[in-house]
Write a structure and sequence with these properties.
Layout (H helix, E strand, L loop, with lengths): L1 H17 L6 E2 L2 E7 L2 E6 L3 E8 L4 E6 L3 E3 L3 E3 L4 E5 L4 E7 L5 E8 L2
């Protein structure tokens, strides 16, 4: 019976991982990183972040129970993705010109 449970659990975990799920790291501060793949950070308080670069192809999700504060240099390069989550959730949509320069951003509500 025990081996059957282990096999079922491993099949469920591999199915979830196959769908691109990334278990979040639990931190109160996220600083000094270059993100090139998928990364998820979660804080039970306010998440403080600075000195982060999300590279082309990078996908970063930051979640803080009391919000996310960007307190210093932070950039998302063309082709990178950033999602900020907190109690007052909104999304920033960035617009670029033909050369890849960011020209505008717009705040939208999450639904």
């Amino acid at each position: 019976m025990r081996s059957i449970c282990i096999i079922i659990l491993s099949l469920c975990v591999s199915d979830v991982l196959g769908q691109g799920y990334v278990a979040p790291d639990t931190l109160d501060s996220y600083a000094g990183y270059s993100v090139t793949g998928r990364k998820s950070i979660y804080s039970f308080q306010r998440l403080q972040t600075h000195d982060v670069v999300v590279e082309n192809g990078g996908d970063l999700m930051l979640t803080g129970e009391d919000g996310v504060s960007v307190t210093g240099p932070f950039s998302v390069k063309l082709g990178g993705k950033l999602q900020l989550n907190g109690t007052n959730q909104y999304r920033l949509k960035f617009f670029y010109d033909a050369s890849g320069n960011r020209v505008r951003r717009r705040k939208t509500q999450n639904n």
